[in-house]
């Protein structure tokens, strides 16, 4: 079959891309591995799964009608509510008819002569002009690399593909490996249901209380009344959400008392904006230490057993350089008599066997084992597909030393291929929905430009790509991000090249840069005329 454009994925990015490309009059088809829309929010159905960005902003802004008609119920929406929202969007804009579900893209190969892509899926071959990867940044799970996993005789559950029928946990011994956002969200709910919970922690993470609550109707009405202006502020902000209404002065420019009182105030409000309270948390280690010390002191206050509290205090990375978690009663959970913490740096996991997890100190018998061990972030989903560009160049080879791209959108040697929130763009450092809309809008405008200028193929120039990669690296090097062995640098996947992947210069700055490049007739792109292409 043939189409003008193939979109890979039907999560937030794929759905909007489908809406937008269809709006350009392109015959567009989306391929989705799941049996329904939703992407991340389709797969990650574990108890406690929620977004850590406020619902009011973790949602589309492209349609005033959609925005006006939808009401969120909580400050931070749960996975079922976000999934219901995406299903509503898919229905409302009649997107489903162009989505092929339960189908996976295996390869995409570019033909230079015709300037077209051949996309091979598990069910079909599609010949198309444009291919848009909306594959998500955290969609390919990472194996925990622990020997014996397959031997475990109990129930093995994974947060990223939580089953619809969950075994009853009442009275059972549950183990949890992984204390990133997923582990920290699921743990308190496992503790409530299980007979006993053992948390196996490798790296202690900083977590701030979410203080989730039902949305106050008066406040929600006020947000909706001012929605367009708030969205516009988000688009030009650093993070992609409405920033705090305070001057972000350096942390050490105020007295200790003032600093503590500002942290206290943010802790009471909760959420990821905790770190926005001062302007230099991400760039100055001494400033960062003040925030880290504050959170460590909170852990000491909340957790009754000083030994457990110490184990929970992160010491190996500056706060925020691994994605900060938001939680509901995570630290308090460790005061329960039926919850234990094992620090696997001190007491390493040796193997998993039929009965449970075996650490250096001995066996931990379990009935249920939950894995929340993370993802092959940002590049995993793209490199899983055999993508071959001009002259048969494989993306895997082009990226053998880490991902390189122009704007995180286009790749040299891969004409008419676009990534949504690819490595080199703000993506995971931002409110993803804001970034997704910006990328999709930019790509759609680019395609419109190609059509109105009789351009058959657009390709990032190698120099523009190198320059962009250097710029992304320079931005990161001006921050403390490099001090953490995080998934932002691929450190969680053995053998993955260590390259800092997201663009940390801010969503607004990035948007301005993209707009500037478009205004200059797509500087940095080679545009091949339709006249040069064999019909
Ligand atoms: P993360 O943040 O990558 O967390 C994965 C966790 O699993 C992390 O604590 C890891 O420790 C731990 N892990 C991974 N492998 C092992 C092994 N072998 N043994 C022990 N512990 C292990 O993934 P999440 O799903 O929680 O969150 C991903 C993003 O989704 C999040 O940032 C939000 O944006 C939403 P490590 O830190 O590597 O030592």
UniProtKB/TrEMBL annotation:
Cofactor(s) recorded in Swiss-Prot or TrEMBL: FAD
Matches recorded under InterPro entries: FAD-binding_Monooxygenases, FAD/NAD-bd_sf
Keyword flag Nucleotide-binding: no
Matching Pfam families: Pyr_redox_3
Keywords: FAD, Flavoprotein, Monooxygenase, NADP, Oxidoreductase
UniProt keyword Transferase, yes or no: no
Record-stated family: Belongs to the FAD-binding monooxygenase family.
Protein name: NAD(P)/FAD-dependent oxidoreductase
Species, as recorded: Microbacterium aurantiacum
């Amino acid at each position: 079959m043939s189409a003008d454009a193939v979109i890979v994925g039907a999560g937030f990015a794929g759905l909007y891309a489908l809406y937008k490309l269809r709006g350009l009059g392109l015959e567009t088809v989306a391929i989705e591995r799941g049996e329904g829309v939703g992407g991340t929010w389709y797969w990650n159905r574990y108890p406690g799964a929620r977004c850590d960005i406020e619902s009011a902003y973790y949602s589309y802004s492209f349609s005033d009608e959609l925005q006006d008609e939808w009401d969120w119920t909580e400050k931070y929406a749960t996975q079922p509510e976000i999934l219901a929202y995406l299903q509503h969007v898919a229905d409302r804009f009649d997107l489903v008819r162009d989505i092929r579900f339960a189908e996976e893209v295996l390869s995409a190969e570019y033909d230079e002569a015709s300037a077209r892509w051949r996309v091979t899926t598990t069910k079909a071959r599609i010949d198309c002009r444009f291919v848009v990867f909306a594959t998500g940044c955290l969609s390919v799970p990472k194996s925990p690399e622990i020997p014996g996993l397959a031997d475990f005789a109990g129930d093995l559950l994974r947060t990223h593909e939580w089953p619809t029928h969950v075994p009853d946990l009442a009275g059972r011994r549950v183990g949890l490996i992984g204390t990133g956002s997923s582990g920290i969200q699921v743990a308190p709910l496992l503790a409530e249901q299980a007979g006993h919970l053992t948390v196996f922690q490798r790296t202690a993470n900083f977590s701030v209380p979410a203080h989730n609550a039902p949305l106050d109707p008066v406040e929600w009405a006020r947000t909706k009344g001012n929605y367009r202006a708030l969205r516009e502020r988000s688009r030009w902000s650093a993070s992609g959400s409405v920033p705090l209404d305070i001057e972000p002065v350096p942390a050490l420019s105020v007295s200790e008392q003032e600093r503590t009182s500002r942290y206290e105030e943010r802790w009471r409000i909760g959420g990821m904006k905790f770190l926005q309270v001062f302007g230099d948390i991400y760039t100055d280690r001494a400033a960062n230490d003040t925030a880290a010390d504050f959170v460590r002191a909170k852990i000491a206050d909340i957790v009754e057993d000083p030994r457990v509290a110490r184990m929970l205090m992160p010491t190996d990375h500056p706060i925020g350089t691994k994605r900060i978690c938001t939680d509901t009663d995570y630290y308090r959970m460790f005061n329960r008599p039926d919850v234990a913490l094992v620090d696997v740096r001190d007491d390493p996991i040796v193997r998993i066997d039929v009965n449970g997890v075996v650490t250096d100190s001995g066996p931990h018998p379990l009935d249920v084992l939950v894995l929340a061990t993370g993802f092959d972030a940002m590049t995993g989903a793209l490199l899983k597909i055999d993508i071959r560009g001009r002259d048969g160049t494989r993306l895997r080879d082009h990226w053998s030393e880490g991902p390189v791209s122009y704007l995180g959108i286009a790749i040299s040697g891969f004409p008419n291929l676009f990534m949504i929130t690819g490595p080199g763009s703000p993506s995971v450092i931002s409110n993803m929905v804001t970034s997704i809309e910006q990328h999709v809008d930019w790509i759609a405008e680019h395609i419109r430009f190609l059509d109105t200028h009789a351009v058959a193929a657009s390709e990032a120039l190698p120099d523009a790509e190198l320059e962009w990669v250097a710029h992304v690296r320079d931005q990161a090097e001006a921050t403390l991000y490099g001090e953490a062995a995080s998934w932002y640098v691929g450190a969680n996947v053995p053998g993955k090249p260590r390259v800092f992947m997201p663009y940390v210069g801010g969503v607004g700055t990035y948007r301005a840069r993209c707009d500037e490049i478009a205004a200059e007739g797509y500087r940095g792109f080679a545009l091949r005329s339709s006249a040069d292409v064999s019909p």
